[in-house]
Every structure is written in structure tokens, then in C-alpha cells.
């Protein structure tokens, strides 16, 4: 088992990673949440169907209630958020109660936001079940979507612990492995060229990742992310680098309709676009072609999805959280591992989108 500690100015919490670490859950609750009055597990239909029974077994010493929400982006809506709050009230949760998020990033983002706002904030624990959630479960960004934009209604709210049992990843469909691995690639590109090269040399298929390799890259991604979060929890500066690929990625997700393309696949396209911009505006010297061939071999789509209007994408990007006064800011790379924020005009972006086809 790997134990990593995430430190922010007000809080430090453990991330346990490895096969079988779910056993830490009751131990952690007994030790750190003594006197817990109720545990509310929020999970989705698929993950609940697969893993709820063993978790209930593990938690049999505690009073537990469960809310099942729809899978994927359908969970990150006002309606589902409202239903979770209603359930929390009807189950009589109080400030000594605990929310447990069992699922991928969608369940984690929703549950964290429910926890952050129920009675102005009660503790929560993340039990991630996707590769992507090495990113989403760590760092405390919790949110739901608005039709106008991704994660627009949310908070920064750190969990008490992240318990990342890699046994849960074995049932992940290939498309979800692909989605999650895009954020691993992101972590390498923004911070560590040798990690990027290691990934490229060792991961040639997402179907057959060795357990030791999986643990290695998940832990490395978490280490990279938590170092950034430790320095800038609320995104006043360098945390924006974790948004590499997301300016266009989020615009694609919103424009297509949430859930039509997975988050990671949209971010992957966004990263390829940001790399193209980096060559033109940030002096990056990098062989995008070799990266493109590698990710195509892993099954990623590398072109813009058909039928999206460049003008509408630019409008979406103006509303991105990194924008200031409707001026769009991209995370670009001066070198691999060296990100910086750049403001670009609508005209410059439209021109590059045109070349990106
Ligand atoms: N908070 C953050 O810092 C952060 C970071 C990255 C992404 N996100 C958000 O995370 C969300 C995406 O999360 P995600 O990709 O982890 O997935 P998800 O929660 O959207 O789940 C995707 C699908 O996989 C299924 N699934 C989950 N775990 C499974 C398992 N072990 N076996 C079989 N099926 C399983 C789910 O039921 C769902 O159908 C997006 O909304 C994105 O915006 C947040
Ligand atoms: O943790 C962060 O900071 C990130 O930007 C991680 C991203 O991978 C993640 O998708 C995040 O939810 C995007 O944040 P947002 O502020 O653009 O909604
Ligand atoms: Zn992301």
C-alpha cells in the first residue's frame, strides 16, 4: 500500500493507494471520525451494483444509508444535487455525519459539493473507482455542471481521506480507462518530461496495464497534483496549470452536451490543441506528431468532433473559469514540464481552430 499525504494550508489528509486498501475505511472512520452519527454513501447505479454490497459489509458496524444517482455527467445536475440534499435531511444527517463518495469523478464531484454545502459543510471521504479519479478525488474541487458551463457551481472542499483501491479499476470499461489515462498524460506534460517519456515507452495499450504500472502512474499523478494543490489550493496562480487542455476540452463537452464525449477524451483533444498553440505562441519545441501517433494507438480520437461551430466554442471558452473579463486564457507549455498562462485573442484562437481540423 502507498500512503501519500495531501497538505493544504488548513488541512492534511491521507491518500491510500493499492489493492485491498478499502480495508482502511472502517479503521480510518473509527480513528478519525469517532462518534460519527450516520454515514451516507453516494454512489451511482453501475458502481453501486458492483461494489456497494462489499462496502456495506465492511461498514456493518456503522449506521449507513445509501443514495444511488445516475452514472456519469447525469449525476452532476441541480436535480440530483437537490435529491441528495433531500435524502441527507430525511436520513437525519447532522454535523457529526459523514458522506462517502463511492464512484468516479462525477460521483466524487457531486458528493463533495453535497458535503460542502449540507449544514454548511460536513466531512466526506472519497472512494474513487476510476483511473480518472486519481485526479478528481484529490485537491478538493467539487462541483456540478450548468448548461452554460462545466463545473460552474461548486466549491473548494477537501475530503478527510481518499481510499483508492485499485481492485475496483478491474471492471472499468476501456472507454473509461482511456478517459482517465488522459489526465495521467496531462500530469506528465505539465510537470515532468521523464514521466511523460516513461508513460510513452511503457504504456502501449490501455487494455493490459500491469498492476504495478497502474499503481506507479496513479501515485505519480497524485504526487504531481498534490504538490500543486499544496502551493495554491484555490487557484490563485499555479493551480491553473492543472487545467491544461481543459479550456477547449470543457467547451467541447458543453457544446456537445455533457456525457456525449468523456471528460478525458475531450481534454486529450484540448491538450493537442494547446500544444499546437504552445508551438506558435510559447516557443515550444516538441514533436506533436509522435504524441499523436501514440495516443491514436491507445484509441484516442485526435481530431475535433464533427459539427461543432468554432465561434460557439470560442463563446464557451470566454466563460471558462480562467477567463478574465471575457478574455480567454490558455495554459500553454514553454517546454514539456513548464506551463504558463497565455491570453489569446478570439481572432488568434479562431485561426488556430481552423488549422486544427
Ligand atoms: N474535481 C476534479 O478535480 C476533477 C478532475 C478531473 C475530472 N473531474 C470530473 O470527473 C468527471 C468524470 O469522472 P470519471 O471519468 O471518473 O467517471 P464518472 O464518474 O463520470 O463515471 C464514468 C462511468 O464509469 C462507470 N464506472 C465508474 N467506476 C467504475 C468501475 N470501477 N467499474 C465499472 N464502471 C465504472 C460509472 O458508472 C459511469 O458510468 C467529470 O465530470 C469531470 O469534470 C473532476
Ligand atoms: O484540480 C484542478 O485544479 C483541475 O483543473 C483538474 C481538472 O482535471 C478537472 O477537470 C477540474 O475539475 C477542472 O476544473 P475547473 O475549475 O476548470 O472546473
Ligand atoms: Zn480534468
Question: Would you kindly provide a written description of the structure presented here, covering whatever features stand out?
Answer:
The protein folds into 2 domains: 2-171, Rossmann fold (3-Layer(aba) Sandwich), CATH 3.40.50.1970; 174-356, Dehydroquinate synthase-like - alpha domain (Dehydroquinate synthase-like, alpha domain), CATH 1.20.1090. The chain has helices at 24-32, 45-58, 78-90, 105-117, 133-136, 174-191, 193-202, 211-231, 246-256, 263-281, 288-297, 310-318, 346-356, and strands spanning 2-7, 12-18, 39-44, 64-69, 98-103, 124-128, 141-146, 149-156, 161-165, 328-335, 338-344. The model has no long low-confidence stretch (mean pLDDT 98). The protein starts with a strand and ends with a helix. It has a 7-stranded mixed sheet with strand order 1-2-9-6-5-3-4, sandwiched between helices. 45% of the residues lie in helices and 20% in strands. With 357 residues, the chain is an alpha/beta fold. Residues 44, 46-47, 50, 71-73, 76, 103-107, 109, 129-130, 132-133, 135-136, 139, 141, 151, 168-169, 171-172, 176, 179-180, 183, 263 line the site of nicotinamide-adenine-dinucleotide. Residues 135, 183, 246, 263, 267 line the site of zinc ion.
Amino acid at each position: 500500500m502507498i500512503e501519500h499525504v495531501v497538505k493544504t494550508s488548513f488541512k492534511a489528509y491521507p491518500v491510500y493507494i493499492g489493492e485491498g486498501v478499502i480495508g482502511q475505511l472502517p479503521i480510518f472512520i473509527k480513528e478519525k471520525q469517532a462518534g460519527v452519527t450516520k454515514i451516507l454513501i453516494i454512489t451511482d447505479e453501475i458502481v453501486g451494483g458492483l461494489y456497494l454490497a462489499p462496502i456495506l459489509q465492511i461498514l456493518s458496524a456503522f449506521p449507513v444509508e445509501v443514495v444511488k444517482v445516475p452514472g456519469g455527467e447525469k449525476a452532476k445536475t441541480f436535480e440530483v444535487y437537490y435529491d441528495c440534499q433531500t435524502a441527507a435531511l430525511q436520513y437525519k444527517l447532522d454535523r457529526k455525519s459523514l458522506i462517502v463518495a463511492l464512484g468516479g469523478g462525477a460521483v466524487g464531484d457531486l458528493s463533495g459539493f453535497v458535503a460542502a454545502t449540507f449544514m454548511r459543510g460536513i466531512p466526506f471521504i472519497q472512494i474513487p473507482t476510476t483511473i480518472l479519479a486519481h485526479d478528481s478525488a484529490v485537491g478538493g474541487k467539487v462541483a456540478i455542471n450548468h448548461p452554460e458551463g462545466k463545473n460552474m457551481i461548486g466549491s473548494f472542499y477537501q475530503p478527510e481521506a481518499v481510499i483508492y483501491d485499485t481492485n475496483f479499476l478491474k471492471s472499468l470499461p476501456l472507454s473509461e480507462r482511456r478517459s482517465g489515462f488522459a489526465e495521467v498524460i496531462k500530469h506528465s506534460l505539465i510537470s515532468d518530461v521523464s514521466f511523460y517519456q516513461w508513460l510513452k515507452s511503457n504504456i502501449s495499450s490501455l487494455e493490459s496495464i500491469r498492476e504495478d504500472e497502474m499503481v506507479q502512474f496513479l501515485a505519480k499523478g497524485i504526487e504531481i497534483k498534490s504538490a500543486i494543490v499544496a502551493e495554491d489550493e484555490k487557484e490563485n496562480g499555479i493551480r491553473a496549470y492543472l487545467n491544461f487542455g481543459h479550456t477547449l476540452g470543457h467547451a467541447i463537452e458543453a457544446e456537445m452536451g455533457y456525457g456525449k464525449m468523456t471528460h478525458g477524451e475531450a481534454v486529450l483533444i484540448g491538450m493537442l490543441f494547446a500544444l499546437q498553440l504552445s508551438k506558435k505562441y510559447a516557443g515550444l519545441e516538441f514533436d506533436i506528431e509522435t504524441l499523436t501517433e501514440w495516443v491514436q494507438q491507445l484509441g484516442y480520437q485526435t481530431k475535433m468532433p464533427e459539427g461543432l461551430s468554432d465561434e460557439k466554442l470560442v463563446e464557451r471558452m470566454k466563460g471558462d473559469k480562467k477567463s478574465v473579463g471575457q478574455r480567454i486564457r490558455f495554459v500553454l507549455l514553454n517546454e514539456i514540464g513548464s506551463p504558463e498562462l497565455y491570453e489569446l485573442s478570439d481572432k488568434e484562437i479562431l485561426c488556430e481552430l481552423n488549422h486544427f481540423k
